Amino acid sequence: MELTEELARRFARIALGHVAREYPNKLDHVMTGDADARTPRALHPAFFGSYDWHSCVHSWWMLLTLRRLYPDMAEAEEIAALADATFTHEKLAAELVYLERPEARGFERPYGWGWLLALHDEAARHGNRDWGARLEPLAEAFADRLPPYLEVLTYPITVGTHFNTSFALVLTRQWVQGRRPALVATIDDWATRAFGEREDYAGWEPGGDEFLSPVLTAALLMSRVLPRERFDAWFDALVVTNGWLERECHPVTVSDRSDGKIAHLDGLNLSRAWCLRGIAHALGENAPSLLAERAAAHLGAAIGHVADDYMGEHWLASFAVLALLKPE
């Protein structure tokens, strides 16, 4: 399956329908008094839509990605107009002020951090607009938070939800390359200490509300960190020799797409497809054929359910695009 213009237009229409939809809304907001009880739009004038802050951010990443890939599609002009109205100095300055609150130390950590950096990375690729320059102060502020966070993060967080360390570091590492070489080294050193000696994976997944695979997100991260020959042996020892990949890595079943947590499992199918394709790309000719087979199976299990219910509609298309993009 490929990301065609027809599919891109479908995904764009979905996201255009919710990035500026304020309600329903689930805030990540610490209040210190009555004055902090404010509406999503007042708290986050740029990213108040899509049910929650991080979904709005990565839906914007998707919209800009689709505009770049298909600049002549009918939705490209609407995306640009809405982005011009959203990524204003005033609105993004308010987002930065919110982030600088002492109570926001853990705001969207680390999932939203990684996605905001991915959004900025994509925005900077649109040379005929200044979205990248406008988002840069917010991106730099999130990037500044990463080294002190990794310094105190003694153990990797390997759950399959927003707190997963590896997923955020994959997105972050893409942003820091060419921008902050020292931060690339920090990420790589931390990842090597956290995962470099792991082998014979036997974890219990999937969890009932996960949208990320703990082991495959870690493997995707390490595919960016380790030299190819070392990664080949590492990945083989992690999930191939012990049979986990063949025995356990099958598409998951989603029983109720109107339940926001259960709907996460559609995202697991999509994010696994993304990881499997990325890992296969890193392994090159040494990639087991099973990686491509399982990636296709996971993608096929979820791609038709991106807009079944708003609990998935407000975010799943972004993960579908991740899974469909050609690995770099």
SSE order and pairing:
Layout: H1 5-16, H2 40-43, H3 53-69, H4 75-86, H5 89-99, H6 111-123, H7 131-152, H8 165-176, H9 181-195, H10 214-225, H11 228-240, H12 244-248, H13 264-283, H14 289-302, H15 310-313, H16 316-324
Helix pairs in contact: 1-3, 3-4, 3-6, 5-7, 6-7, 6-8, 8-9, 8-10, 9-10, 10-13, 13-14, 13-16
Notes on the protein architecture:
With 328 residues, this protein is mainly α. It folds into 2 domains: 1-26 and 39-143, no CATH class; 153-328. It is 59% helix and 0% strand. The protein has 16 helices and no strands. It has helices at residues 5-16, 40-43, 53-69, 75-86, 89-99, 111-123, 131-152, 165-176, 181-195, 214-225, 228-240, 244-248, 264-283, 289-302, 310-313, 316-324. Helix 8 (165-176) packs parallel to helix 10.
Query: Helical amount among residues, as a percent range?
Result: 55-70%
Categorize the overall geometry: globular
Total beta-strand segments: 0
Largest sheet: none
Reading the helices and strands in chain order gives HHHHHHHHHHHHHHHH
- The secondary structure category is mainly alpha
Taking the alpha carbons of the first and last residues, their distance comes to 17 Å
The number of helical segments is: 16
Average predicted local confidence, pLDDT: 97
Quickly count the domains.
Answer: 2
Entry summary:
This protein has 328 residues and is an all-alpha fold. The protein has helices at residues 5-16, 40-43, 53-69, 75-86, 89-99, 111-123, 131-152, 165-176, 181-195, 214-225, 228-240, 244-248, 264-283, 289-302, 310-313, 316-324.
